[in-house]
Amino acid sequence: GNSVTQMEGPVTLSEEAFLTINCTYTATGYPSLFWYVQYPGEGLQLLLKATKADDKGSNKGFEATYRKETTSFHLEKGSVQVSDSAVYFCHFQGAQKLVFGQGTRLTINP
Amino acid sequence: ETGVTQSPTHLIKTRGQQVTLRCSSQSGHNTVSWYQQALGQGPQFIFQYYREEENGRGNFPPRFSGLQFPNYSSELNVNALELDDSALYLCASSLGERETQYFGPGTRLLVL
After folding, report:
1. CA proximity to A66, closest of A78, A51, A48, A77
2. How many angstroms separate the CA atoms of A110 and A39, rounded?
3. Nearest to B88 by CA among B101, B98, B103
């Protein structure tokens, strides 16, 4: 069936560290892939997206590449900031199916 | 541009009752999706409406039903409430299938 497996949290890093949050998916066909973020006290909002294989989504220094061969969409950032502390959700939209991962809570310490 | 709004913000019901949650989509958006989010979990897809027709459904029983109106606002109805229905219910609107979703703040439902 359709599913998203996301790296379990919580993840705690120091400022300026490199970040990777893994995400793999199981889906029929070729879904569109997204990362959503929820900052403390705020609602879910789009961070980045990719709609076809080998596309790279990027925003606010974050990047993720749609890898069809490994069914993955890992989120990366070269140098995290305290303001990146939030919960991150991997998400796909396929044919009439929308699936979120369970979320990864990220805390960045100064 | 008005964002996605949901009402009410909080609701308390007892087991067996029925509830209706409402969502106003962002201007110009013809697609609305509903999710259930338990504490510490990711949102679970309930169903999606596109131009007033159901366009996909997750693994929720038939007592979860919905509507989309000509102005693309939407309702989620839950009959015969159970304790496990206690959760945050999120509505998201978009310009179509596989497009970026814009989320409302949610309705927190508590079933006693």
Report:
1. A51
2. 17
3. B103
Partner-chain residue, chosen from A32, A43, A44, that has the shortest CB–CB distance to B98: A32
Read off the DSSP letter of residue A69.
Answer: T
Residues of chain B with Cβ-Cβ distance to A95 below 8 Å are 56
A77, β-bridge pairs: A19, A62
| pLDDT 10s digits, A30-78 | 899 999 999 999 999 999 999 999 999 999 999 999 999 999 999 999 9
Cβ of A89 and B55 within 8 Å?
Answer: no
* DSSP element (H, E) containing A77: strand A75-77
Contacts of A31 in chain B (CB under 8 A): 98
| Interchain contact A74–B (C-beta under 8 A) | no
**CA-based nearest distance B95→chain A, Å:** 13
A49 touching B (Cβ < 8 Å): yes
Q: Vertex A38, ends A32 and A39: CA angle to 5°?
A: 145
pLDDT in tens, A89-108: 999 998 888 999 999 999 99
